[in-house]
Design brief:
single chain; 399 residues; alpha/beta; Rossmann fold; 2 domains; 9-stranded mixed beta sheet; two-stranded antiparallel ribbon
């Protein structure tokens, strides 16, 4: 009975940290955001005002939109953002988007419509769109290119969508030298770098940032020289991959990392001590949404340090993860996600309706699993409790 109760505690801790189950945006005064930046600076071309962190954030978020069946797909010469927007909003395809009931994806679609009406973005060529999903692997990968001029390009990698396959890969990538998506990202960068003249920026949001950093760090030296910026918008790091940390040194000066003040994703296995913490309208996991980040002119509005919640989460989760072997970490992730799939949970949206079934399935998996799995889960629970208490004491000493 004690182990069953501990397993349920682990379940609540993990799900609360990782998935935005029933959170609602808090009521607060409206602050300038990415849409305000576009409206105020949309009349400036990229020749007049170079690419900055806000433009890069916009390109990172636009990669969440499915451009399947458009002229932006595959190896075509591409299509202007304005024409792409016109085609997108005149078609019925947008109504079939898997993620349409998530506010973050609604904001991405709205950004496409808004940006396409302004001089700064209307003429951007969109090309190279690809989207792949392999549940057996598991692997979820998507990327698209925004050509700001014939010699300036932004390669944007999509973050995790709502599929459980994508979230499983998020965690497995931390204990593998190379995941399927990371290999696809590296191949994608290499293939398009050979076709695109001039300078390259790359980046993404969440897992997309991880893929961009991986691809840039593993790229050939001649490609790395052409990369001017690697934009990391709250992407998980590589702390369980020492070899990757060494490769990152070659591009370290080009990486710009941004996280919200209460970061829960960007601090997981973080690989960078240098970052900009950004003010957000939202709280907890909802701060992962870049459209909630405050804008101050042509930059994000920064804060001096991460919030107490973020620091405690950082310490608790990373200390726990550091104490697990790769084998133990895989056991934890596989038990969690296998239980989800067995409970009929295939997307994050399915969790709420299937929580009871999931809880029962996970408990059974923990109770009736083999000895090594039970031992690992019990160890994880003890580590979480111990490290949370230590983090709480550290925060108390700070005050």
């Amino acid at each position: 009975m004690k182990n069953i109760r501990l397993n349920r505690i682990i379940l609540v801790l993990l799900l609360t940290a990782l998935f935005p189950l029933s959170l609602e945006a808090k009521s607060a005064p409206r602050w300038p955001n990415l849409f305000d930046y576009v409206k105020e600076n949309g009349g400036l071309s990229f020749e007049e005002e170079g690419i900055n962190e806000l433009d890069s954030a916009i390109f990172a978020m636009l990669s969440y939109i499915s451009f399947e069946g458009t002229a932006a797909e595959g190896s075509s010469d591409g299509v202007s953002l304005r024409e792409l927007s016109d085609r997108f909003f005149s078609s019925e395809f947008r109504y079939s988007m898997r993620n349409e009931n998530w506010d973050i994806w609604q904001s991405c679609i709205r950004m496409l419509e808004t940006a396409a009406t302004y001089r700064r973005y209307a003429g951007i060529k969109v090309r190279g769109y690809v989207s792949l999903l392999d549940e057996a692997e598991p692997s979820q990968f998507s990327a698209v290119i925004f050509s700001l001029s014939p010699t300036l390009h932004f390669i944007s990698f999509r973050g995790t969508d709502t599929t459980i396959t994508g979230w499983r890969e998020n965690f497995l990538m931390t204990c593998e030298s190379q995941t399927s998506s990371q290999k696809l990202a590296l191949d994608y960068l290499a293939a398009w770098a050979s076709r695109l003249p001039g300078c390259i920026h790359t980046g993404g949001h969440s897992k997309g940032a991880n893929l961009a950093i991986y691809a840039a760090a593993q790229a050939e030296p001649d490609v790395q020289k052409r990369i001017e910026g690697v934009w990391n918008f709250e992407g998980p790091g590589f702390s369980r991959n020492p070899g990757m940390l060494e490769r990152i040194k070659a591009i370290d000066g080009k990486i710009r990392t941004y996280v919200p003040e209460t970061s829960l994703v960007g601090v997981v296995m973080r690989s960078f001590d240098s970052y900009t913490a950004v003010k957000s309208d939202n709280y907890l996991f909802l701060q992962h949404d870049l459209f909630s980040w405050h804008v101050d002119g042509k930059r994000f509005e920064s804060v001096e340090e991460l919030s107490r919640t973020s620091r405690m989460f950082d310490s608790t989760m990373n200390e726990t993860i550091a104490n697990l072997s790769d084998a133990q970490f895989r056991i934890l992730i596989n038990v969690l996600f296998d239980s989800m799939e067995e409970s009929g949970i295939h997307t994050v949206q399915d969790i709420g309706d299937n929580m009871g079934r999931f809880s029962t399935t996970l408990t059974k998996a923990c109770v009736f699993s083999d000895k090594e799995t039970r031992k690992t889960l019990l160890y994880v629970g003890k580590c979480l409790v111990k490290n949370f208490n230590n983090a709480r004491k550290e925060e108390k000493n700070r005050s």
